[in-house]
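Illustration: 2-amino-3-ketobutyrate coenzyme A ligase, mitochondrial.
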Amino acid sequence: MSSLAECIRPELNAIKTAGTWKNERVIASPQRTRIVLANGIEALNFCANNYLGFSDNKEIISAAKIALDKYGAGLSSVRFICGTQEIHVELEKKIAQFHDREDAILYASCFDANAGLFETLLTPEDTVLSDELNHASIIDGIRLCKAKKHRYRHRDMTDLENKLRESPSSRLRLIATDGVFSMDGTVAPLPKIFELAKKYNALTFVDDCHATGFFGKAGRGTEDYFNQIGSIDIINSTLGKALGGAAGGYTTGTKELVNLLRQRSRPYLFSNSLPPPVVASASKVMDLITESTEFLEKLKSNTNLFRNDMTAAGFAISGDNHPICPVMIGDAKLATEFADKMIEKGIYVIGFSYPVVPKDKARIRVQISAAHSQNDIEHATNAFVEIGKELGVIGS
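Result:
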């Protein structure tokens, strides 16, 4: 019998040969705009999901420390046994109020929230229709359920409508989409989706991980961006990006849905509850973003500055005015070389290429934060221009 290592080794070699091996750069400092790598390099960080700059916010850290002393490091149990504290209930209420929903339920991550939703809600008599470029967690969550499954072409409403017509007798029809697609910074066409959902008596589900807390006029996510708060039937999102950057996810919607998830959702029932310091830090974040739009406005300003300056310099920037700003390069090796040269200039960015993105669509995905200063943005832009000219990505 072959050893496990012998079975795995060819697959690892194939990944390396394909040029898709993922190296992890080790950070020796807190997650923030200016980071220190383990090799001693200091860099401006332009590739974290730290949209509001809360990962190293002193008020949030203080709230976590207080909770650690008051409530302990963890619960050592799942919620329904002895793993629920008052702060868990309080955070769920704040999340529901923030989204203008009846209730919310916490998970260890949004991946778990997506894994726990579809299997619990949908039966063989139901149909789920999923955008083909949805996040892996949505795809995996849908795989677990027994509903009839359809994938519609990316943001293609004609194809979605055709597939809705194919399932007239379903008990429930659920349209599932990311609110913002993280590789491109593009937004789902929610108004059109709502129209089709109403026309064909379907429900809507949105994963709003790359929108919650900072996208839309009040930071309420993609439905806020389209001035249609309250229109989505089910929202899943994360506490691990804009909302503190630690961990955790949630589902928010009707009380009936949340009650069903508490009774049947396997990731919820069989995973330890979120640690008190994580809950407290997320609760503090909810207070900060509810009381003020200061961080949101700074993020919008920084995003506009970067996008405008890069476009003026001749770069092709993808996305819909979102802080995810993919700098389109095209060639995979060129994107990797570009990113390496940026690190040498003290700008931490990562090149993305196939199979993470389509072939010949390699890019450097820049992510803007409210914690970036104007000088930070200009420093990054200048580095992009210098290297872009050197590598022939833009004209000299």
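Reading the tokens back as a structure: The mean pLDDT is 96.
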